[in-house]
Design goal:
single chain; alpha/beta; eleven-stranded parallel beta sheet; ten-stranded parallel beta sheet; 7 helices; 38 strands; 26% strand; flat
C-alpha cells in the first residue's frame, strides 16, 4: 500500500493524464497514493472492476475509486470512470510507486572523464561508469552497479543496485532493470579443437528498447557479431537467461526461470511461461503462448497455445507410465505384426 509521503495529485489531473472521466464536483479530490478497497485509506485511491463490488466500495475508507460507469453511478465516493479499471489503476499506481530520486553523482561514484552524465540523473554510491558512456536525464543508477564503456542509458531508466551493464549496451528510455541483473555478459560461444573447447570472441552488444522491464538476477548475453536485441515493451521476469544473438519481439512477456538458447527469434506479443526451455536457433511466430515448463526444440510458425509438459501425478503412477513409454517401440512393432497377420477386410466380405 502506498503511503501519503508522495505528493498529492487531484482526480482532475489523473483524469486528464489517463483519459478518464471525473464528475466536476469531485475533480479536486486530492490523492496521495493507492490502496486496496478493503479497508481502504482516506487519502488514497482503489479500484473496482464490476458491479459485484459495489458494497465493497461503499464500505471502503478510500478517498476515491477507479471503476466502470455502472459502479460510479451506484456509489457516493468520488470516482474516476474507466472502461478498463485495472489498467487505469496500474497507470495511476505507477505515479506513486517510487518517489523521485535526488539528482547528482555520489561522492563515492567513479565516472570516466569521457562519460557524459546528465545533471538530472541520479548516480548512487560505488557506481562505476566507463569511458564514453552516456546517462540521460532522469536516469537512476543504484549503488554498486557497474556500467561499461560505450554504454547508453536512456531518459528515466532505473537500474537497481549490484547490476552489471557490459560494454556497448544500449538501453532505451523508461526501462527498469532490477537488482543483480547482468546485461551484456559474454555469450556461451565455444568451438571444439579436437581435445577441448576454445572460446569464440563475443564482440557484439545488447540493444534494449524503451519501456522494457528486466527482473532481478536475469542475464542477457551480448551477441557474437551482431547485437542481442530486446524490443520495446518487453517484460522479463526474474532469473531469465537470454543467450547471445537472440531477438525478443515487442511487448512479449517472459516469465521466471526461462532459458532461451542462442540465436533464437521470438515474435511480438508472445507469452512465455515460467521454466520454459527454448533450443538454439528456434524461431517463434508473433502471438504465441508457451505454457510453463514446456520445451521448444523446433520452430513454431503459427500463433496459438503450445505445451509439452506432463501434469504432476502420484510417483507410482508416473513410474508405471514411464515404463510403458519406454516400451512404445516394442508395442508398435507388435501391433504392426498383428495388422499384417490379420485377414484384410476385403477377404472377409
Amino acid at each position: 500500500m502506498a503511503t501519503n509521503t508522495s505528493p498529492a495529485l487531484t482526480l482532475a489531473v489523473l483524469a486528464e493524464r489517463f483519459d478518464l472521466v471525473v464528475p466536476p464536483e469531485t475533480a479536486q479530490t486530492a490523492i496521495h497514493g493507492v490502496c486496496a478497497l478493503e479497508p481502504g485509506k482516506p487519502d488514497c485511491i482503489g479500484f473496482a472492476e464490476n458491479p459485484s463490488q459495489i458494497e465493497t466500495v461503499r464500505r471502503s475508507a478510500a478517498a476515491a475509486v477507479i471503476c466502470p460507469p455502472a459502479v460510479a453511478e451506484a456509489v457516493d465516493i468520488p470516482a474516476l470512470v474507466a472502461k478498463q479499471p485495472r489498467l487505469a489503476f496500474a497507470r495511476v499506481a505507477a505515479l506513486f510507486e517510487r518517489g523521485p530520486a535526488s539528482a547528482g553523482i555520489h561522492a563515492r561514484a567513479v565516472v570516466a572523464e569521457s562519460a557524459r552524465v546528465d545533471e538530472q540523473a541520479s548516480i548512487a554510491a560505488n557506481v562505476v561508469i566507463g569511458a564514453n558512456s552516456v546517462i540521460e536525464a532522469g536516469a537512476v543508477i543504484g549503488a554498486n552497479t557497474v556500467i561499461g564503456a560505450d554504454v547508453y542509458i536512456g531518459a528515466d531508466t532505473r537500474i537497481a543496485s549490484n547490476c552489471s551493464i557490459g560494454d556497448r549496451v544500449h538501453i532505451g528510455a523508461r526501462t527498469t532493470i532490477e537488482a543483480n541483473a547482468v546485461i551484456g555478459g559474454r555469450g556461451f560461444g565455444l568451438v571444439h579443437n579436437g581435445a577441448g573447447w576454445e572460446p569464440i570472441p563475443q564482440m557484439g552488444g545488447v540493444r534494449v528498447g524503451d519501456d522494457v522491464e528486466i527482473g532481478a538476477g536475469s542475464t542477457i548475453d551480448r551477441g557474437a557479431l551482431d547485437d542481442t536485441v530486446i524490443e520495446r515493451g518487453v517484460k522479463i521476469d526474474n532469473q531469465v537467461h537470454i543467450a547471445h544473438n537472440c531477438r525478443i519481439g515487442a511487448h512479449t512477456v517472459v516469465a521466471g526461470c526461462t532459458g532461451i538458447a542462442g540465436s533464437c527469434t521470438i515474435g511480438s506479443n508472445c507469452m512465455i511461461g515460467g521454466g520454459v526451455g527454448i533450443g538454439d536457433h528456434v524461431t517463434i511466430a508473433d502471438g504465441v503462448i508457451v505454457t510453463a515448463a514446456s520445451q521448444v526444440p523446433k520452430n513454431i510458425d503459427r500463433s496459438g497455445v503450445y505445451s509439452s509438459t506432463f501434469r504432476a501425478m502420484p510417483a507410482t503412477g508416473w513410474r508405471k507410465r514411464l515404463a510403458l513409454f519406454r516400451q512404445l517401440d516394442k508395442i508398435e512393432r507388435r501391433l504392426r505384426r498383428v495388422e499384417r497377420a490379420a485377414p484384410s477386410s476385403e477377404n472377409n466380405e
